[in-house]
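Justification of resources, computational component.

The compute hours requested in this renewal are based largely on the per-chain cost of generating structure records like the one below. Each record pairs the submitted sequence with a full structure-token output. That output is archived, and it is also reused by downstream analysis tasks.
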Amino acid sequence: MSIWDKGLANLAAYRGVREDLAARRTPIQLVGLAHIHKVLFAASLVTSLKKRAVMLAGDEAEANRLTEDLKALGLRVLYLPARELSLRQMEAAGREYEQMRLGVLAAMAEGGYDIVVACADAAMQYTIPPDTLLERTLEIVCGAQLPVKDLPAALSAAGYERCSQIEGAGQFAVRGGIVDVYPASCPAPIRMELWGDTVDTLGYFDLITQRRTEQLDAVAIPPAAEIMYDDAATLAADIDALAGSLRTKNAAEVRENLRRDVDRLRGGARPGSVDKYLPLIYPVKANVFTYMRDALLMVSEPSRIKERVRTYLWQLEQDETALLEENQLCRALMEYAPSWEQMMTEMEKKATVLMDNFSRGGIGLPTAKMYTVDARQLPVWSGRVELLAEDLRDLLARKMACVVLAGSEEKAAQTLAEDLQKAGLPALYAKSPEAPIRGQVLVLAGGISAGLELPEAHLAILTHGRAVRPIRRNRRRSKDRGLEIHSLSELQIGDYVVHVAHGIGIYQGVHQMNVQGVVKDYIKLEYAKGDTLYVPVTQLDLVSKYIGTK
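The structure output for this chain reads:
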């Protein structure tokens, strides 16, 4: 049990929720929780019940705050982004979000997480089933034989892009008996030296220095593509059979468009619109709820979740309608996400906790229990010791157990405890305290986005605060140096630029493209051998000006 769980132990609502979850009396509704209280409840329930959890957020900004605050409380937290489906033929598209998703799904399949935070649309999108992901995961063991006869072919079949030197997740490179690969689930790329078909050495290495950083005994390499097929010929045959079965008035036009992808597959190319065939590739539907197993489901502001789901499904329906009108799609290929009613069925089956700030109208989900919590959110501490001491005196006069988060540095926490002692307060620096103590101030290292007070639990948490960073993939610097671009006006056609995942290319201007019925601006980058990459202008931060190497 954590200090936070023990801090909430005096709260009747918390004890009731914990007992209800243990007895599977769900769904449960909690009312009165602001953002920071949801964080504390989620962290405490996960640690006390020894369960994992998936937490649904209303939008990316909330998901960002939840992820950062839960991490600050010491949990292994993963953020799952949504991705745009490629339902139209495109030359190339960025795969950063897909790589992030695959890293999270691999961790979920193996149980390597405490909480996954996601917006509803990211959680509901159909994806690779867990069994398929695990079947296609390569288990590499140092000192043992490779699990496949042809490792490069197996990596290519698993969706990895072969290149001369890897620069980002989802890539691999082969140089003689050395194979480098960067799985999205790993914190760094992997280098293996082979002696024939035996793994001689295995370890992480640094992208910039190319030096090994950590030896490994074994590693799991999951697939690098969410939508992947076992055999191009089989998928081509399935699409051809579907095309032949069409009997609508516009069947000839649809059949012609589908069979273009059949020709691509039989010619050895991967269709740019491969997501369109998700229902054929994965007859068994799977999404994040499938990966949860017995994990808890925590829903922040259910009414906002419902609205986001409906907006996502409406947009998906608009995209599908446009494709139907253009004879690019048939109704047999229109299952990419469940309905809201199916989502509610999943919530009813899971151990679900609905968390609301205010009591609102129901979302149509029957609840087994409802609890109301008297909870208050406190502003962050400005850094002035005299103001903090004044607030603490008021709380201690009410016999509260006070916890102060003093920032990331332990030395700062020790110094603050000494300053509070000099101010006459019963303050104590504690590195790993077991529980809050009424009438005592415990000073810890760390920081969350807001403080809180729970009068019934006699608990107050004050924090120095911290900057909430936007969620983005942790990328290692490329060896190719780049100068940040603030505006497209800084680029001229022919300039060399660096993409964080794809390396150095030539800028060829901004092109408008109709993507799923919506006209968007894309930056066109040209690479060697005629390869082309289109990057949405909204992802300008992924591209920098090439200024050479030092």
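The first strand starts at residue 28 and ends at 31. The two ends are 51 Å apart (CA to CA).
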